[in-house]
Amino acid sequence: MKNYTRLTKKDIRKQYSLIKSYYKKHLKKFGVVLPKLYDANKKFTKNALTLVYLSIGYPDTKIISKTELTEFIRFFDKKVNDVQ
After folding, report:
1. Contact 50, 70 (CB under 8 A)
2. Is residue 83 part of a domain?
3. 44 has which bridge partners?
4. What span, in angstroms and rounded, lies between the C-alpha atoms of 65 and 40?
5. Nearest to 53 by CA among 32, 27, 80
């Protein structure tokens, strides 16, 4: 099993692109807002990282813990204490 806490930036961009294609096809018409991948400082946003992590392997996603998700996001943003 792949260690998802060590996804590369390229992996994240690729997965976000997949999410974006599903969003455009199925959700945009309903007014759903897709979080931006990058913030003003060109760093990944917490919301986009959350979507990316939860969507890995879609449609066969795995159940993850809050701790695991927090660890993944903390790899890219050390200031994150906890994911709510």
Report:
1. no
2. no
3. 38
4. 29
5. 80
Whether residue 82 lies inside any domain: the answer is no
**Global pTM?**
0.88
Task: Give which of 36, 37, 34 is closest to 12, Cα–Cα.
Answer: 37
Q: Which regions in the chain score pLDDT beneath 50?
A: 1
Q: Where are the alpha helices (DSSP H) in the chain?
A: 9-22, 46-55, 66-76
Tokens linked to 2: 């792949």
Whole domain around residue 53: which residue ranges? 4-76
pLDDT of residue 1: 40
Residue whose pair of structure tokens reads 């003003």 in the numeric block: 40
Local structure of residue 34 (DSSP, 8 states): P
Q: State phi, psi for 40 to the nearest 5 degrees.
A: -65, -25
